[in-house]
Amino acid sequence: MIFTIISELAFTFYVDNYGISNLIGHYFKLSERDIKESKVTITLSSGDGTAVVIVTDNAGGVPEESISKVFDPYFTTKGPQRGTGVGLFMAKTIIEKNMGGRLSVRNGDDGAEFRIEV
Q1: Percent of the chain whose pLDDT exceeds 90
Q2: E strand intervals along the chain
C-alpha cells in the first residue's frame, strides 16, 4: 500500500486521535479488496482560517446506495462479524460537535474522498 502526504501547511495540525485515526484505519482495510496497488493520499491545506485534511483512495469508492448512510450509527457494509458501524459515526460526531468542524464523503475518480474541515 502506498501512502502519500501532500502538505501546504507550515504548522502542526491536530485532529483528535480518534477522528483521524479512525478514518485512516479504514484505509488499511484496502488490502482486503482486490486492488493491485492500493494507494491512499492525505492532502493538508489551509485558507481563510480553516485547516483542511482530504483523505482519498483508489479502491473504487463507496457504493451509491451506502454513501448517504456511512455516518449513520450502526451502519456497516462489513456485516456483524467484522464491523460495528460506529467508527465513522464517532469520527463525524467528534469532528463536528466537539471541534466545530465538518466531515464529509464523496466519490472521486478512483475512490472515496473524506474531507475534514476545522
Answers
A1: 24
A2: 2-7, 39-47, 50-57, 102-107, 112-117
